[in-house]
């Protein structure tokens, strides 16, 4: 990325105005990035898409072969350091590859687990000897990698793991015992990052080869969806792991577990966005072909509205994902690769945007959920039977709201991380909350800039940020340190923050490309922003209203509810025309239009 951008703090979007020239968008891709995207698309179309049904039937040999071919194309080495044969490209490119792999169905799950949580612990925390031994095999696709954190009794509570590691009498091995559950790539992975507690106390990571004595791969899970990916338990029965395979520091396994999950979250956001674009395209094509009463069903308003809503939400999802890519890449570019603790600083750079990573995971996975639900509806009865793509989309989608941390857990993390930043003095949340309360008491008569096509949305965003600050301030005042246990309040705050980031991402992208776009494209950009902002404001308003009822009563409640009504006011005049314009364009082009 050539443009100079301000380095914003994680969560700062809630307390500052961001200019459209400060965000990265898909329109900013370099020729090299576009070429990598096209290579990925061609690989999916020629090598993977023809075999989706066979992979879903349990032919994992095709998955392993696909991984090797991905390795030959360099798709597994995007995040790996150059000194070990990697490409060491930026996060925007990494996200683009994840997005373009989405049409490969379950293969994309195997790929994401391997190239993300399977590979990154070794890159970020491995010793030189460990990288020399394993990394080339991993990034070439010779070996597939897996990540073993979850256990039958510990999912979201990762530190509640019961797996143990005990040093052998001769001091040469750690003996690992326990069961790891729901391990993606478990059936064919050759290298596992396994978490266990040394002496039942010190949570630590280990690099465990498939061939190590005492590692047993359990039977394949019979899953609802993503059937072409392997999911098994991994049983550790006095598994002998050489001491030199301890990863990172003793007792610091939580750093590896949680930092790598941040990467998994933003990559998942990119992948599900690609899936939404693909599923929407299938729905549009089917709606154009399917005729009822002598007309294509895409010509009916009831179907057209669905196509418009899906298009607008997918535009927002895409805008959000690549805005986050820009935040990460801008921050990471400031770190000197020559310093000894480069990956430690690199991890801190990613962790800075942990709230946005969680937002990406939640928002984008839920956009995909709504899209595939409507795709099934558009396909009608054919959407409910195998042999048509809608049925598989529906089954495969569901897992995205569960893994990489459930959406509930991620919702709790978002306001929690932002409030911690405020307490550390990294965000001026308290001062801004006081200003927000003043705004609540003061009527505003600001007039919109009629020359700005997105003036209404910008004014709304300012109001929504004020509303978030009012509710956050009231929550902190009422519950203080106990707020972390008030999950319903935190989730309501998260929903408001998520919609703010999503609306702003869509507006900034549209504003950025609007001046140089054709008149038709400008009309469609304005339509997408209006359609999405209308629905997102309804969600934000509902979350804010819930938060008010959860927090206040009497006069204070009445005052905040009055503020909710005032600060969620959005003039969506022309909404029907906007939806019809999006639906018409989608039908004419037969695909996602942005």
From TrEMBL:
InterPro entries: Acyl-CoA-dh-like_C, Acyl-CoA_DH_CS, Acyl-CoA_Oxase/DH_mid-dom, Acyl-CoA_Oxase/DH_mid-dom_sf, AcylCo_DH-like_C, AcylCo_DH/oxidase_C, AcylCoA_DH/ox_N, AcylCoA_DH/ox_N_sf. Residues 30-142 form the Acyl-CoA dehydrogenase/oxidase N-terminal domain. Residues 464-566 form the Acyl-CoA dehydrogenase-like C-terminal domain. Its cofactor is FAD. Keywords: FAD, Flavoprotein, Oxidoreductase. Pfam families: Acyl-CoA-dh_C (PF21263), Acyl-CoA_dh_1 (PF00441), Acyl-CoA_dh_M (PF02770), Acyl-CoA_dh_N (PF02771). Residues 146-239 form the Acyl-CoA oxidase/dehydrogenase middle domain. Residues 251-414 form the Acyl-CoA dehydrogenase/oxidase C-terminal domain. Belongs to the acyl-CoA dehydrogenase family. Homotetramer. This is Acyl-CoA dehydrogenase. It comes from Desulfuromonas versatilis. The lineage of its organism: Bacteria, Pseudomonadati, Thermodesulfobacteriota, Desulfuromonadia, Desulfuromonadales.
